[in-house]
Structures are given as structure tokens and as C-alpha cells.
Write a structure and sequence with these properties.
single chain; 133 residues; 4 helices; 26% strand; two-stranded antiparallel ribbon
């Protein structure tokens, strides 16, 4: 077990990413709390999703920016080397042919910082998630 020296919380993994104290209340607060190098990527992902599903509610769920419309449609989060995009397993399967250059797992897509963001694809996936919810 690893114990965060700042907040005293215990985690299974050493140096596990987490929020010390109160988690952010809005997507904008989440983005502002991330390392500077990740912020522009997060802003772009957020803008692509927001434009694609403007009626969805923006919120923080599971400590991640979330677009919600009766259920979680799509989520994203910053990590050390990538943005994690969480459209769900059905969306990853539906878009598998267009995700071949990205690492994927059940319901998750890793968008590395060293590649251009596929913003059009992200927007299409968000819309697909809304239409198939």
C-alpha cells in the first residue's frame, strides 16, 4: 500500500494519481487542476465533445469530466502520457476500424500526447454514444 504524503489516503499503486482534498466540481476546474502540458489537449477534447452533444449535462463523475444524458455518455481524463477517453465498450467496438493506431481496452481509448488529437473522431464517438444510449 502507498500512502499519499499530502492527504494521507491509501492506494494499492505507488504514486497513484488522485485528488488531495476536494475534487473539482466542474470540468473547467478539472482542466485547470491538471499539469499545464495536458490542459490544451483537455480543452480540445472537451470542446469537441461539447459541440457534438450540446444538450448533454457536464459534470464530474468518478473524478473525471463526464457528459451525461440519463447516463454517462462519454468521459475523459488526463494521465502522464495520454488522455484517457471513455466512450464505453460498445463505442470502442463500433469505431474499432478507426482506432487501430491507438491503444484500446474495454471501453477505453488512450490518446497519447505525442500524436495529434483525432477531434473529429472524438466528436463522432460522442454523438454515437448519445444516439445509442
Amino acid at each position: 500500500m502507498w500512502v499519499c504524503p499530502k492527504c494521507g489516503r491509501s492506494f494499492k499503486n505507488a504514486e497513484q494519481s488522485h485528488y488531495c482534498g476536494e475534487p473539482p466540481a466542474t470540468i473547467e476546474e478539472y482542466i485547470a487542476a491538471q499539469p499545464e502540458a495536458a490542459r490544451e489537449y483537455l480543452r480540445q477534447v472537451n470542446a469537441a465533445i461539447r459541440a457534438s452533444v450540446p444538450e448533454a449535462r457536464k459534470k464530474i463523475s468518478w473524478s473525471m469530466p463526464t457528459y451525461w444524458k440519463g447516463r454517462n455518455l462519454i468521459q475523459f481524463a488526463a494521465f502522464k502520457r495520454h488522455i484517457g477517453l471513455y466512450p464505453g465498450p460498445e463505442a470502442v467496438e463500433a469505431f474499432a476500424g478507426r482506432l487501430t493506431e491507438y491503444k484500446t481496452s474495454k471501453g477505453t481509448i488512450q490518446l497519447p500526447y505525442n500524436k495529434p488529437l483525432p477531434l473529429e473522431l472524438i466528436a463522432e464517438m460522442a454523438k454515437w454514444c448519445e444516439e445509442n444510449s
